[in-house]
Amino acid sequence: MGPTHSILLLIFTCVLVSLSWADIVNRTTDDSLGDSATHLLVTYLPTTDGVWETEKCTTCSIMPDISQTFSGTYTAATHMPGQSPISVTIDFTGIALWVFFTLANNISGAATQTAVNFTLDGGPPTFYNHDPELSTTDFQYKVLVFQNDSLDNIHHTLVISTSQFFPDPVYVNFDYAIYT
């Protein structure tokens, strides 16, 4: 083997070693600020005014304490039976994903049940349901509602959606997601 081959082999070996030492890094996708690395924003559908509200809503019947939410923000909507589904879409590249909601409990005159499907890369949906605790008006913050830690390190799309066939009003409050 000549000197050129030896140098190329050395460079190739160094690249492989450096790749194997790469750190696993957690990145955050905030409901309002988007992805901390790519700056991609979360997509909320429908885009109709008044469907999705943020912590700035002054007329909303459900108003969590923003000092308890990630980055002091949240995005929420109430889906009524028979309406077209509402959804949150998150794009990321990674090997694991954790999604966090703010959950509401007993609030007079407001729908506080959370019932959503998590559909990753067009696969089968995973259903999540939170029945409100009627004995408390306290919110539950930074609640892990979905996780998958066995993904290939490729681009993924997660769609969080309601069903138009669910018989009750549903409250959805997306706070943030973490991916690795």
Structure description:
The protein is mainly beta and 180 residues long. The protein has a single domain, classed as Sandwich (Jelly Rolls), CATH 2.60.120. It has one helix and twelve strands; from the N terminus they run H-E-E-E-E-E-E-E-E-E-E-E-E. The strands form two sheets. Strands 1, 2, 4, 5, 7, 10 and 12 form a seven-stranded antiparallel sheet that branches. It has a five-stranded antiparallel sheet with strand order 3-6-11-8-9, with no helix packed on it. Strand 8 and strand 9 form a beta hairpin. The longest helix is centred in the first third of the chain and has 18 residues. It starts with a helix and ends with a strand. About 4% of the residues have low confidence.
Structural class by secondary-structure content = mainly beta
Could you give me the name of the CATH homologous superfamily? Galactose-binding domain-like
As for the CATH topology, it is Jelly Rolls
Number of strands: 12
Q: Rg to the nearest angstrom?
A: 21 Å
Helix content percent band: 10-25%
Q: What value does the average pLDDT take?
A: 92
Output the CATH class name: Mainly Beta
Order of helices and strands: HEEEEEEEEEEEE
- Give a short account of the largest sheet: 7 strands, antiparallel
Low-confidence stretches: 14-20
Total tally of structural domains: 1
Q: How large is the share of residues in beta strands?
A: 35-45%
- How does CATH name the architecture? Sandwich
